[in-house]
Amino acid sequence: VRSDLHIRYGIDGNGPTDCVASTGEAGFALENSTLSSGGLEGYYSPLHANVRTGWTYGIALQVSLAHSDDAAQSVSSITRSGGTATVTTGAAHGYATDNYVRISGATQGEYNGTFKVTVTSPTVFTYTVTGTPATPATGTITARRAYPKHRGKVRVISPDAGQKRRRWVQVTSYDNMRELAETDLREVGLQINQTEAQLITAILDAMPASARPVARALDTGIDTYSYAFDELGSGVKALGVIKDVCISSYAMALMRGDGTFELKNRQSRFSDSVVTLNNTMHDLVVPSTMEQVWNLVRVFIHPRTISAAANEELYSLPAGTSLEIPTTETREVWTDYTDPNDRQVQVGGSEVVTALVGGTHYSANSASDGSGSDLTANITATLTPFASTAKWSLTNNATVTAYIRPTLKVIGKALRDPGPQSFEATSTQSYGVRPFELDLKYQTDANVARNYAQYLETQYNDLVGQLDAMEFSALNTSALLTQALAREPGDVITVTEPVTGVSSVEAVINSVELTVLPNRILRCRWGLAPAAPFKSWITAGDERVRES
C-alpha cells in the first residue's frame, strides 16, 4: 500500500430518518511497478499480462488493523476436526470469545487469515476453517489480535498510466450495503403479522445469494405489522425497503467492520455508554443552526383494508391488447397488482389463485384480433404470486403462433391503503414553530405512533445534547487507539469538552471513518447522533412505558 488507507462505514447524517447505513468503503493505492509485491510491472492491472492471479473486479477484500500493544505470539499447534481448527498457544493468549485473531505462517493456506474465535481455555481457542487442509498445520505460525474494519468487494481498480505518472493502482472496495442499494426487491411474498426483524429477514433472504451479507445479527422485533411489502410493484431497491422497515419501528440497520449486517431495535439502539472521552479530541462538531431542531412533529401511519374474499381482479390484460407467443416457446410475464376500481392505484395481493383455469384466468387465439381459432387448450400456464406482483410462465404448445387475449387475469384478495392517519406532538419554544413530518409506511398501531411523535419532539426540540462529529489522533494514547479500533456504529459514548460547554453528553456513533497515513498515524472520526432522552421505549400491550 503506497497511499493513505481510508475506511468509512455507517450512517450518514443524524436526523430522525437517518437510521440505515450507506455504502461503506475502503480506498488505497497499490504499488504497480517492478517494486510491487509480485516484482512485476502491471501486477495489479486487471488487463495486464503480468496481473496477479485472481486479481479482478468483484473479488472479496477484508481490511483489519492491529493494536501496537498486541504483539504476535507463537502458536504451538493447530489441529483440525471437520471444519473446526483448534489453536494452542505457548503462553496465555489473552483473547476472549468473539475476538478476531489473525493467523499467519501456516504452510496450509486455509489456516491463515483473520477469524472470529471461541476461547476454550487460557491457551486454547478455536475457529472455523474452510476446506480440508492437512492436520496438524505446519510452519512457523503466529497469532495476533485483529480488528476488522472493512469487508466488501473490489469495485474500482484504476491504474495510473502514462510516462510521467506513478506506477500505482487506485483501489476502492464497497461493503454489502452497496449491493443492498443496487438490488431490486420484488420476488418476496406479502408479509402478514410479522415483526421488523422478520421483515428484514425476508428482505435479505430474497436477495441473490451472492449479494447477501456474510453474517447477520438481528435484534428481536418489538412491533408486529399487519401487512408489509404491498407497495413493491415491479421492484424497488432493497435498501429503501429496509429503511422503510427501520423508520416504521425506529430501528437501526448497520454494517459492522467485519461484514455483519446488524439490526438494532428501538430499545437496544440506545444502550449504556461504553466509554467516556473527556477533552481528548482535537475536533468536536456541534450543531450551529436551527436545521436540526423541530418542535412540531407529525407522524403518519397506514392501516390497510383487505378484501373479504379472494375474488378481485388484481390484474387484467388491458382490452385491445394481446401477448404474442411463437410456437413451442415460453414467455415470462410480470403483472403488477392494481385496484380493479381504479387501475392507476397500486394494491397488494393475498390468497392469489394459482390453480389456473383456461378461459377464466387466461385464454389464447391464433389471431391477435381474436378472429382466429381458440388455442387456450394448447397453453400451459403457471402463476407465481408475490406481495404486489406476479410472474406468469406461458408456454405455447400449438403448431402456430398464439396470442394471449384480455382474459389474462390475476385473482385474489386486494390489500388497500385507504389513506394515512396522523398523530402530532408539539411544544412551545422561543424560536417559533419548526415542523417535521415522518411517514411510517408499515406501522398501524396508533399508540406507537403517538409515542413516536412525542419521542421525536422531545429529542429534537432544542440543540442541547446534540453532537455532530468528533475527531482525534488515535496514537495519542494506547487507550484512544483501543477505542478507535474497537468502536462500531451503534455504540454509545459519553463526551465532555470545555470550549463548547458539552458536559457528559451521551451520543450514538453513527459512522466510523479511519485514515491510516503512510507514517502509520491513525486518524479517527466518528459521526455522532443524539442519544435518547429516554433510555428505553417499552411496548407492553396497550401500555407504553418510558424510563427517563
Descriptive notes:
The chain is mostly beta strands and 548 residues long. Helices cover 10% and strands 43% of the residues. It has 5 helices and 41 strands. α2 packs antiparallel against α3 (238-249).
Concise account of the structure shown:
The chain is mainly β and 548 residues long.
Helix content: under 10%
Weakly predicted, low-confidence segments: 539-548
The secondary-structure class comes to mainly beta
> How many alpha or pi helices?
5
Oligomer: single chain
Distance, first to last CA: 49 Å
Largest sheet: 17 strands, mixed
How much is the radius of gyration in Å? 29 Å
Percent of sequence in beta strands: 35-45%
Number of strand segments: 41
Q: Mean of the pLDDT scores?
A: 92
- Principal-axis shape equals globular
